[in-house]
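hey all, quick one before standup. I had two proteins in the batch that finished overnight and I want to keep them in one place so we stop losing track of which output belongs to which input. First protein below, input sequence then structure tokens straight from the run.
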Amino acid sequence: MNTQEKRPIYVIGHKNPDTDSICSAISYAHLKNKISDNNYVAMRAGQVSNETNFVLETFGMDSPQLITDVATQVKDLSIKKPQGLSYNTSLKTAWTLMRDTKDATMPVIGEDGALEGIIALKDIATANMDIYETRILSLSKTPYKNILETIDGTMVVGDPEGYVESGKLLIGAANPDLLEEYVEDGDILVMGNRYDAQLCGIEMNAGCIIVCMGAAVSKTIQKMAAQNNCRIISTPHDTFMVARLICQSTPVGYFMIKDKLFTFKTEDFVNDIKTAVAKIRHREFPILDSDGNYCGMLSRRSLIDMNKKKVIMVDHNEKSQAVDGIDDAEILEVIDHHKIGTIETIAPVYFRNQPVGCTATIVYQMYCENDVEIEPNIAGLLCSAIISDTLMFRSPTCTPLDKMAAEALANIAKIDIALHAAEMFRAGSALQNKTEEEIFYQDFKKFNTEEVSFGVGQVSSMDKQELESLQPKIEQYMLKSLEKTGLNMLFFLLTDIIEESSITIFVGEQAPEVIKSAFGVEVADNQHSTYLKGVVSRKKQLIPKLMAALQQ
């Protein structure tokens, strides 16, 4: 099977993705496709930063597609696609098809692919058992083709392409004198080979005469029928069988359910439709795509045998940082370099967590372990991720392994680390055209203790003046936005890459005391920022000290 035909396995980084999150997802999906026959697809859970865009453009890679929720959707379920019926399909044809395919419900589809209605076995049964209307063929505008097919007939006189426009259905068993009192314009007469009865029907302007038992129709009758626009059909069946079968030629469109159809879209989430399915006791429901075209039928049983989305998490293992719906997905692997978080899985998973400065370093190792050649563009992505996460080896999170990996990757990608880093950081620090909100959430993560929840954001720049001018704007935004976030405290690092220090902004009732306790700095009343020399890593230098201070 071609990988494009297989259900995708999503490789996804955290929300508010940074360069490591995006580049590691792309590179790991590429590796997995090299060493397995599954279909791994890199995705992103948030907007791509300027720095990451620069890296992707530099190495000619497209940004992963955005996915905001990995909960199970209707399109993830087992959707049957029974043969769609047209409006004019006969009841007999529909019944035969449903009997052979064991489908209890079938869709009626228009020429444009749109769903016009549905017909169920009970609707066909109702049509056969509860309809006593002798004009049913004309009321339903039954095609003569349906009649020919249903009674195995042959059109002797007339156009087989027409429709029954008027009249009722009669058995022409009476003598001509009595027939004259009953036959009206457009009626359909079912009879044998009686010449006088056939002639009477034609003279009374019958719309069609059905001659049973395969009896021959004289040339005189044929000529008179043609002159009076009366069709003649020959059938091998007897009168009783024709009377029994002919109403099964009526089109399904006349009996289908077309109002208040309970349909679902392929993009609907299963959790959102379960209530409706429980209340509506249908066995199957039509499924439509985003344009309203018919896609298939969803059975109630499909909700039991759900195919959850399969996910590999990279560069995170905290539920709060994961894409929405992660609880409803099947997590296959976690590749990360952060502290162990709150993700729970139903089944055992491949979990690789190493104390290095960047997830891309782990991915590089896995390429080497699997003896897979690293292509120059992939090497460029991985090297850029390491440079970004370690602040070009200045971060205390950086390990010798990170530096070794970056240098090896730079050699493959044929880039100068110092020059590439300068261009990357310059692109990433282009903050002047962004709103305070965009800057604040550019790289933002939430954290929780037993009693307190807080969020930490960070931007890095090689321009000290840019950071200093940004400080009052971010501070005011945080003061206004704290309540809206639902968190107890907010922290933000304005990191100067050159000086390897950060201006730290903090808001929240406990925030000043926490900063004071964590870093031993003096914090005056109404003060919301402080300078932390040597602090550049949120993960290794800020978060552990904040957590320790909160636990005291």
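OK second protein, same deal, sequence then tokens:
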Amino acid sequence: MDLAAYYDAYWETVGDNFDEERLGLIVQRVNAGENVLEVDCGPGVLAAKLKARGATVVGTDLSPVAVKRAQKRGIPTQQVDLDKEKLPFGDGAFDTVVSNNAMEHRIFPERTLDECVRVLRPGGKFLLCLPNIGHWLCRWWLLRGRFPYVRHSPTDSTHLHFYAIPDAIQLCQERGIHIVEIDGSASLWAKTFYPAWVRKRRFRPFYTRLAHRWPALFSRDFVLLGYKQDAT
């Protein structure tokens, strides 16, 4: 399958409406003055928010269509297929590397992670966001002997890989990333995923707090914050 062509078609039809709650969890963990790379940045919505925060941001993406959209936002962006290519940056080139709900779409996600770590300086910050297959609804489906592919859920049909928090932490640790913080986004906008009672207005603040407090069980997406350990 030609993933670049697939995501060209995808980004030609998808607008700029993104999960603001999830993006906010990433943005608040990036500081002004940081030199940031966002891999697989899509149309540059998150990258533009990071730039507005005062960071210097560059991006890469598999899709030429997404690259052009990110460039129109003023984000220097290059087309890179991380399943086949290395990032066009030197070792330790960035203070911060961000991967936002992207690795699950890759054929070889470990190669993407390897490259993220390579271009991150020792002591640099790594922010990894992934859909949470450990969500209580996914566990309930499995208990009932089911694994439905549900749009806008951790089992979305565009996902080639599935991650729970302990597995993602292990992947990072194996590459010298020490995880210091875990947070979760409830993403209650996902009508196709959540039952109606969960999304009721009076219940939403309570459930959102649950996702932050116990992301492994209640978050639709989790964010890991880690730092690259000095090999010496």
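Flagging for whoever picks this up: The mean pLDDT is 95. The longest helix spans residues 3-13.
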